[in-house]
Amino acid sequence: MIAVLKPNTTIEQRNHLIDWLKGQNVDVHISEGKDYTVLGLVGNTSRIDVELLQSLSIVSGVKIISEPFKKANRKFHPENTVINVGGVSIGDGSLTLIAGPSSIESQDQIVDIAKKVKAAGASILRGSAFRLSSSPYDFQGLKGEGIEMLAEAKRQTGLPIISEIMSINDIALFEDVDIIQVGARNMQNTELLLELGKTRKPVLIKRGLANTLKELLMSAEHVMAGGNEKVILCERGIRTFETYTKNTLDLSAVPVLHELSHLPVIVDVSRSTGYSRYVEPMAMAAAACGADGIMTEVHNDPINALSDGASSITPEQFEKMSDKVRKIREVIG
Ligand code: PEP
Ligand code: MN
């Protein structure tokens, strides 16, 4: 980190600042220019409050040289993190397909979809029991009962399962869940992230509607700081001025996150555009740009789905999609 001091800074003010910085456990290198003095801060600068430093009357500007995320950073962990769940490896170069309904609606529904997506090439089953709904009148999910139904679908098909958590109070219910999902609206719920960091379960974090990739990586850092290194990043579209799609799928997130971090990157192609007819083309694009996995909402009867029917494809459409994305991956190697 570099702090540039204003030209009229007195030696006393400068020394006072340097003492304060040294008190934060960083070394300070002074470089005197004709008008400006530049302070180079060396060491672990993660505890320095950048805004506070910037706000000081003698500071003209602050530049951050190293990223605030350390454990998630590829610089300190060059090899890819591979996460293994129930015999499935995520992040090893393969393309993991995660499919299932938006919400778990009944035992028959989740088992039926699980069997169909498995036959069509999915290796992980998704389904929400706790829902972050846009309206209080929307379906709220089957809660603990839903998780039991998902676990039963796992027993019957052998597919590992992923489901969203909203409150750490529910963690005990996620015993049989292989990957815990943190939804886009909870991406910066740091209390939840820190608690998940105390577990040793893989955690998939979805990018918030208006969050930068750095903020997503800092959310991962919150989980990893607790010692849980099994984090998966998920791009699911961000809010822009565009209205023909529900969100704008920022596929550049995939190469950028791969460059910055060693963590696997999944693309949710249902949430991103909000419409089932765009799922297949965006899945192909996600496969082409090197995503470690694709998440898709699949429903046996989308028109009567209790949530997100508009973005859900049928098992037949999933089978076609699955076939196409695999071919794309074979071509690009
Ligand atoms: C979901 O995957 O069911 C979901 C609600 O996604 P998001 O948090 O990305 O909106
Ligand atoms: Mn949904």
Assigned CATH superfamily of the largest domain: Aldolase class I
Content of β-strand: 15-25%
- Poorly predicted runs are none
- Structural category: alpha/beta
Number of helices: 9
Shape: elongated
Order of helices and strands: EHEEHEEEEHEHEEHEHEHEHEH
Q: Give the beta-strand count.
A: 14
At CATH level 2, the architecture of the largest domain is Alpha-Beta Barrel
Which range best describes the helical content: under 10%, 10-25%, 25-40%, 40-55%, 55-70% or over 70%?
25-40%
For the largest beta-sheet, the strand count, sense and barrel status come to: 8 strands, parallel, barrel
Based on CA atoms alone, the radius of gyration comes out at: 23 Å
**Straight-line N-to-C gap:** 39 Å
Q: Output mean pLDDT.
A: 96
At the fold tier of CATH, the topology name of the largest domain is TIM Barrel
User: What small-molecule ligands were found?
Assistant: phosphoenolpyruvate, manganese (II) ion
Q: Could you name the CATH class of the largest domain?
A: Alpha Beta
Order of the strands making up the biggest sheet: 7-8-9-10-11-12-13-14
